[in-house]
Amino acid sequence: xxxxxxxxxxxxxxxxxxKEYNATAVKIISIILVIPNHKSMKIAFFSTKSYDxxxxxxxxxxxxxxxxxxxxxxxxxxxxxxxDAVCVFVNDRLNAAxxxxxxKNGIKLIAxxxxxxxxxxxxxxxxxxxxxxxxxxxxxxxxxxxAVALILTLNRKTHKAYNRVREGNFSLERLTGxxxxxxxxxxxxxxxxxxxxxxxxxxxxxxxLAFDLLANRExxxxxxxxxxxxxxxxxxDIISLHCPLNEQTKHIINNxxxxxxxxxxxxxxxxxxxxxxTADIIGSLKTGKVGYLGLDVYEQxxxxxxxxxxxNVIQDDMIMRLISFxxxxxxxxxxxxxxxxxxxxxQTTLENADAFEAGLPLKNAVx
Length: 367
Ligand code: NAI
Fold this sequence. Notes:
The protein is an alpha/beta fold and 367 residues long.
């Protein structure tokens, strides 16, 4: 049953309830002709891929979008001339110099199509009177479920079993895993994603320990135990990071904190690469302190992730060393990558732009 009819005449468009349309079509057409479909803001999108264009093209209405595959940086900032806003992603670096150039080009809004904003110099944006908005939540379940996918794959080695069976190798040698039921899982950061992750692990029958600056009462009601960081690190069989990257959390996983963990611990990072000191984790993998490592993010990911480098000589020795371990599983920042999350990102980003243009309060403002 169709409730609404979209009428398009020339460049104008309007959505009308079907019953009104039937009765008053002639009058309505004269109204439609005086409503132009003008393009409100010109927005330069950086770091875009086919999937960004697909989802944004589906939802964009009044704004003019110019898509660039390149990252925003000193070589590409001139592409913003004549635009009103820029839309960027996790690995676009908006330092003070870039923000100064954006200001000169007339940019008034930085719209992040992600939750984290550690890649933007907020002080510089403020000083240049440029607003910064973000998408605070886009399916926390997507990232939480991806963290669980990493855990299950590392534990039950389904990636290896898949390849073995395809080659006619039906042996179970070295595929031994462990029951998640009854294991202790430590969660660092129990915001939207951490909470969704706790819920899943409780469903597996795990004991869930958490460290956060603020305890979440809903989670304590379900049996999650908040403890000091050191206790969470000491008692957990699996540790999953879900806190933001900031001055307090940078390299929260380092030689000192690694030594507090159980031998053979499983560590999962779907949050931000720089939460882990990469050199230190490589050392702990070599000694066996860390028994399994699942990463969806990597400290130096901006030069590598989201690109097909299969025919290139990769210059980053740390990631090549990490890839070489049999007990390390790396995905290329795909935690967010579900239909639900891409829809939410497109809708919220465009709502942020609409609100800015209309001079309305920016509920997703960072600055
Ligand atoms: P959130 O803001 O809802 O939750 C963050 C939690 O971390 C809060 O409860 C906060 O109190 C806590 N926290 C802050 N500082 C802390 C500290 N020093 N120690 C312990 N806890 C601390 O954020 P949300 O939506 O849960 O996202 C978490 C992170 O996940 C984001 O900051 C982002 O870096 C990452 N992310 C990764 C994605 C991916 O595709 N892999 C996609 C989306 C987010």
